[in-house]
UniProtKB/TrEMBL annotation:
<dbReference type="InterPro" id="IPR046947">
    <property type="entry name" value="LytR-like"/>
</dbReference>
<dbReference type="InterPro" id="IPR007492">
    <property type="entry name" value="LytTR_DNA-bd_dom"/>
</dbReference>
<protein>
    <submittedName>
        <fullName>Response regulator transcription factor</fullName>
    </submittedName>
</protein>
<dbReference type="Pfam" id="PF00072">
    <property type="entry name" value="Response_reg"/>
</dbReference>
<keyword id="KW-0597">Phosphoprotein</keyword>
<feature type="modified residue" description="4-aspartylphosphate">
    <location>
        <position position="55"/>
    </location>
</feature>
<dbReference type="Pfam" id="PF04397">
    <property type="entry name" value="LytTR"/>
</dbReference>
<dbReference type="InterPro" id="IPR001789">
    <property type="entry name" value="Sig_transdc_resp-reg_receiver"/>
</dbReference>
<dbReference type="InterPro" id="IPR011006">
    <property type="entry name" value="CheY-like_superfamily"/>
</dbReference>
<dbReference type="GO" id="GO:0000156">
    <property type="term" value="F:phosphorelay response regulator activity"/>
</dbReference>
<feature type="domain" description="HTH LytTR-type">
    <location>
        <begin position="141"/>
        <end position="246"/>
    </location>
</feature>
<dbReference type="GO" id="GO:0003677">
    <property type="term" value="F:DNA binding"/>
</dbReference>
<feature type="domain" description="Response regulatory">
    <location>
        <begin position="2"/>
        <end position="115"/>
    </location>
</feature>
Length: 246
């Protein structure tokens, strides 16, 4: 795989290149570039790489300026010390977003993600990969796992729920991440044809409903992934739920 590194700090350049080689000896770093200007010049005069690792804050501007001025067809892993650019990064072919300091474990996961997408989209068809990662920005939501931020695709979320005033998103694989929004705020963001507010604690995707049954006017809803508590739709909301799921 031919890779470029866009980074203006010499120690960070060297460390990233060394880790890439350590993880996968077939990776070839074809260029290390330090500024927006240098990168634009290089891109105009060289074949496009298969992947780029890009620091956001460069010496002469944000690296986003590169991709505003030069349309690209290769995926990007952004590397930065700041989490505030995460959602903006998805406008520019971002396949991952690594917060510094970058560890070998984080880098390996990022490369695994690239390989998984290549395998999924038939032998590395980059255009299909880019179509996938350039989904509309409002189809993603920012979640947190430990000290890392994760951009979740709404289509992967089974349900949102509130526990002790903290909101969580659970995806269909069972992964559970914190979300810095209220259930009411999330209700305004989701596609109402795909999500329903079951009660004050749960906002659920249609595909997460395994089965349901009436109990004394309320509706007992069984979700998948399974919840630790019994989830009910209230008597007041039961008619709207039946209309929505029909």
């Amino acid at each position: 795989m031919k890779v470029i590194i866009i980074e203006d700090e010499l120690p960070a350049q060297a460390k990233l290149a060394e880790m890439l080689k350590s993880i996968d000896a077939s990776i070839e770093v074809v260029a290390i570039l330090e500024s927006v200007k240098d990168t634009l010049t290089w891109l105009k005069n060289n074949p496009e790489p298969e992947l780029a690792f890009v620091d956001i804050q460069l010496s002469d501007d944000h690296s986003f300026e590169i991709f505003k001025q030069h349309p690209i067809k290769f995926p990007i892993v952004f590397t930065t010390a700041f989490d505030k650019y995460l959602l903006q990064s998805f406008e520019f072919n971002s396949i991952d977003y690594l917060l510094k300091p970058i560890t070998e474990e984080k880098l390996r996961r990022s490369l695994d993600k690239v390989k998984t997408l290549q395998d999924h989209f038939v032998q590395g068809n980059l255009q299909k990969i880019l179509n996938h990662i350039q989904a509309p920005q409002n189809n993603r939501i920012l979640a947190k796992k430990g000290n890392e931020f994760v951009a979740l695709n709404m289509n992967d979320i089974a349900y949102f729920d509130t526990q002790h005033k903290v909101v969580f998103a659970t995806d269909f694989s069972g992964r559970r991440l914190m979300v810095d929004k209220t259930i009411t705020e999330l209700e305004q963001l989701v596609d109402e044809s795909n999500f329903f507010r079951l009660n004050r604690k749960y906002l659920c995707a249609l595909a997460a409903i395994e089965k349901f049954k009436s109990e004394n006017g309320k509706i007992n809803v069984q979700l998948q992934p399974e919840t630790k508590e019994t989830v009910y739709v209230s008597k007041e909301n039961a008619p709207a739920f039946r209309d929505w799921i029909a």
